[in-house]
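If it is no trouble, might I ask you for a protein's amino acid sequence along with its backbone structure tokens?
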Amino acid sequence: MQTLALAALLCLAQTPTPAPAPTAPVQAPAAAPAAETSLSYYSESFPFAWDRTIPLTVNLDGLKVTSIFFNRRVIEPGFFNLLKGAEFGTRAQVEVTNTAKYPKIPGFAVAVLDRDGRLLGVASGGTKVGTIKPGETEAFDLNFTQVKERLAKGDRFVLAIELRN
């Protein structure tokens, strides 16, 4: 009898156990949307011009954007003659004046598009330390990096501005 019980146990031990039924993958909970820390936002498309000042009349909560200028930074003759003609990147220079009663902390983004709506380059920047005080005028250099060689062939640009608290 003992032999029979031992044989039954060995038989059971060698019987494959069925695989557990597949379970549905566990879905991670969706990330909560980030809280909006921006005071104000603005975005608009404008005609593009290379190496010429483009006047603008944008007013975002007292931050007036008066012009934008797209070009390559080049050292002019007579200024550090050793570096004369050297290029130091491609930029969009945005000039703003704070006409409000409170300091402003702006952030800027610029995208340049060709006639077919293809993206030619993107630049961004803004205040890194401090604010633009009431009555102050400041120029911001937004740097184009990596994708920038076709910028001069632009047709339109999109300017986006965020004011942070």
